[in-house]
Design goal:
five-stranded mixed beta sheet, globular
Length: 329
């Protein structure tokens, strides 16, 4: 299955629904208006009903595509009993409410990503982004321009009500013949959770794709260190003993532990690079413009500069919090 899914992804196609193993389906949901093309949600068959991992955008086209895919594999929305959400980004929480209205499914997510709790502690997403941009030390006109650009593309509903929140510790969820362990894995968000099916699959959300780096959570509070969080989370995923990783984007893959180590080494190298570039009073704005991005800083698109600046802020936190590792990991 992984080879066919990977081939479709590399051909810039939306893959057809496919079995990962018996009783586990990967369903790609096209993302309306997004450069990501699609998010892969997963259906797990159990004696307690279908379990859905993640829930696409809240857009009619996403919902219609998901329903068509269920029909194609002989399943129905009404059979879904549980929705397990890896994190609170809009391409993961989107149609969870629609599923619950159709089937009565319970919706669960990590406690720190519960929107109500997040708003109390951190504020809404755009509030966090505004704080992060201020913390970068960029000139005010740059901050204002980046924030205005973000409002055009990043505003989304943050109203999903959960039936239960998952604690900041491992929790085994029993579905009769299937056991799924919820494992807290902050780094991409502060409440990100991966789900380990004890048959050897781990549903990694946006923490660990088959290719490329992990987008780090936004720094908005004094103790935030998303890169440090990510390193610990990658160790946790590595040590689960999973044989197949099922990410929310790209495609399922094997060699889970090796991929965790590879990704950890990549981001550690980023932290070390920031440490080499910074001085005692350096801001993220000072460092980001000297980082070796795919293009020179001034040639990056406006949105890419915003992402790179906020990403550098997260790396800078980690560079100041921990000494360089001799082994690069």
């Amino acid at each position: 299955m992984s080879e066919a899914y990977a081939a479709s992804y590399r051909a810039r196609e939306v893959p057809a629904p496919a079995q990962v193993i018996e009783g586990v389906w990967a369903v790609a949901v096209p993302l309306h208006g997004s450069a990501l093309r699609a998010v892969t949600v997963f259906l797990i068959e159990s004696h307690a009903g279908l379990i859905l991992i993640d829930a696409g955008y809240d857009h009619p086209s996403c919902w219609a595509s998901f329903q068509r895919s269920l029909t194609a594999i002989g399943r129905t929305v009404e059979a879904i009993s549980t929705v397990l959400i890896t994190h609170n980004h809009p391409d993961h929480v989107g149609f969870a409410d629609r599923v619950r209205a159709a089937s009565g499914a319970r919706v669960l997510m990590g406690a720190a990503d519960d929107f109500a709790a997040m708003h109390r502690v951190r504020g809404a997403f755009l509030d966090q982004l505004g704080t992060a941009l201020d913390l970068t030390g960029a000139p005010q006109d740059v901050v204002d321009g980046m924030y205005a650009d973000a409002v055009k593309v990043a505003e989304h509903h943050e109203t999903l009500r959960l039936d239960a929140t998952l604690p900041g510790a491992d929790l085994d969820l029993d579905f009769g013949d299937v056991t799924i362990r919820a494992v807290p894995t902050p780094g991409h968000t502060y409440g990100h959770t991966v789900y380990y099916d004890t048959r050897g699959l781990v549903f990694t959300g946006d923490t660990m794709m088959a290719e490329g780096p992990t987008q780090l959570a936004i720094v908005s509070r004094p103790g935030d260190d998303p890169a440090g969080d990510l390193f610990a989370s990658l160790d946790r995923i590595r040590d689960l003993g999973a044989t197949v990783a099922c990410p929310a984007h790209q495609f399922p893959y094997h060699d889970v532990a090796a991929r965790a180590e590879q990704l950890k080494a990549f981001h550690q190298a980023e932290v070390d690079r920031v440490r080499d570039l910074m001085s005692a009073g350096s801001t993220a704005w000072d460092v980001a413009r000297r980082m070796p991005w795919k293009k020179p800083w001034d040639d990056l698109g406006r949105g890419t500069r915003r992402f790179s600046l906020v990403h550098t802020l997260a790396l800078l936190r980690s560079a100041r919090n921990a000494p360089r590792r001799a082994d690069g990991c």
